[in-house]
């Protein structure tokens, strides 16, 4: 018999950590608002949500690593906005942030979601933080809920 695992969308009882970059806060606040709205609409309690602000996208993996090693979360959502400038700084920050978030997720064995915008312009970031392209904070939160459920289902099935 084939066992199919597909995550659900119920957030009730799930402990969620959210790491948010203060840099480009006009965008990241909207991403956070979208994530919180999604979690609440899917049954999460405010008491089960921890939000940690950090200086910038480069620091997001550091905070996610600290959270996942010192507290018990079912998932951690990483939110930020890196907008291309005139120097290669954008490329370095994006690469290290993505690499770091991926490493934390693999090392800790819990879902760590990448909700970090990497755009060429502020307008593109705004469109992805509640504009015509939706809210990627909401999307990351929904992904976190689904991944939590999938991990729980796999654990029960394999026990």
What would your notes on this structure say?
- This protein has 159 residues and is α/β, with parallel strands linked by helices.
- The chain has a single domain, classed as 3-Layer(aba) Sandwich (Rossmann fold), CATH 3.40.50.960.
- The protein has five helices and six strands; from the N terminus they run βαβαβαβαββα.
- The strands form two sheets. Strands 2-1-3-4 form a four-stranded parallel β-sheet, sandwiched between helices. It has a two-stranded antiparallel ribbon with strand order 5-6.
- A hairpin with a 2-residue loop joins strand 5 and strand 6.
- The two termini are 17 Å apart.
For the structure shown, list the relevant keywords.
159 residues, alpha/beta, Rossmann fold, 4-stranded parallel beta sheet, two-stranded antiparallel ribbon, 5 helices, globular
Shape verdict: globular
- What does the main sheet amount to? 4 strands, parallel
Order of helices and strands: EHEHEHEHEEH
End-to-end span in angstroms?
A: 17 Å
Strand order of the largest sheet: 2-1-3-4
Classification by helices and strands: alpha/beta
Describe the protein's topology:
Elements: E1 16-21, H1 25-41, E2 49-54, H2 60-70, E3 75-83, H3 89-108, E4 112-119, H4 122-127, E5 129-131, E6 134-135, H5 136-157
Parallel strand pairs: 1-2, 1-3, 3-4
Antiparallel strand pairs: 5-6
Helix pairs in contact: 1-5, 2-3
Q: What's the short version?
A:
The chain has about 160 residues and is of the alpha/beta class.
